[in-house]
């Protein structure tokens, strides 16, 4: 199972490691979010009931586009550049960690402002952590040792 996900986009491992270092967030947590959001599929696109849409492997919500564009990141970057996608997701999570501390609540806020949805989302990410940990170890072995 891990190899199929790992090969989804060969650029993703390096992107996760770079974002992890830049934002001081464990790569396993970032990968778990990517797994929970899209199974790490860069082509993932989803519409939401409120009219917003989620883009790329990290399912960055279009609400963030105005802020990201201040840093030169467009929807096209999110959709086609895995490092823009992963770094944007990590940047969003880093803001939530800054606001709420290194907690599962911060992880929940990555997905929603509604507490009941946050709890379900955090549980999904927790469930993805073992697979994420295996992938990170596999990527380290294959690419970085």
Description:
The longest helix is centred in the C-terminal third of the chain and has 29 residues, at 115-143. The protein has helices at residues 2-6, 12-23, 27-38, 65-69, 75-80, 82-100, 104-111, 115-143; strands at 45-47, 53-55, 60-61. The mean pLDDT is 93. It has a 3-stranded antiparallel beta sheet. The chain is globular. Helix 2 (12-23) packs parallel to helix 6 (82-100). By secondary structure, it is mainly alpha-helical.
Mean pLDDT: 93
Amino- and carboxy-terminal Cα gap: 22 Å
Strand content: 5-15%
Order of strands across the biggest sheet? 1-2-3
The rough form would be described as globular
Q: Could you estimate the helical fraction of the residues in percent?
A: 55-70%
Q: How many distinct helices?
A: 8
**How many E strands?**
3
Unreliable parts: none
Major sheet summary line: 3 strands, antiparallel
Radius of gyration, in angstroms, nearest whole number: 14 Å
Name the helix and strand elements from N-terminus to C-terminus, one letter apiece.
Answer: HHHEEEHHHHH
Structural class: mainly alpha
